[in-house]
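FW: tagging you since you asked about this chain on Friday. Here's the raw sequence from the shared folder, copied in full. Didn't touch anything.
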Amino acid sequence: MSDPPRPLVVGLTGPNAAGKGVVAGALKELGFAYHSLSDVVREEAVALGRTVGRDDLIRTGNELRRRGGAGVLAERMIGRLGSRDAVDSIRNPAEVEALRRVPGFVLVGVWAPAELRYERARARQGRGDAVQSLEAFLRKEAEENTSDPEAQRLEATFALADRVVRNDATLEELRRNVAALAAELERA
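HL: got it, structure written out here
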């Protein structure tokens, strides 16, 4: 009888429109269960009668962190995790700290250049992203890189990544890179 596979929980972080959702989708295709810390925030926003647009989600997430501590979103997610999961939308170092207690957790940063991310954000404006210019996009991003320990801290979180996946080529290349990374992590 073979041993059960060791747990593998792949956390995803990165700036807006870097391709975290595409990486998560590739992991789902590989059999990973999908979770998003944003789901915790969406659930709270809906309970408060707010929209699920980006600005309301940022505000709601920051309020949750102020009330429950900087790692509250991850703490609420841990009970939902199994042994082969992808966790999207990690935006605070305290969330990483909480998830590192989960056996087999690995943080993967998804990277793409700002200009490409801006073009992607413009293409998906139906998601509630109001993107008038590259400058406005970068200003909004700066708001997500605060030093406030209970707010979004994307750059500090990305700096904690165990691995980085570049998303500046084709979708096929990205999917191949994700499959190779998952295989490598499963062997480790």
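FW: The first helix runs from residue 20 to 29.
HL: agreed, and The chain has one domain: 8-187.
FW: great, closing this out.
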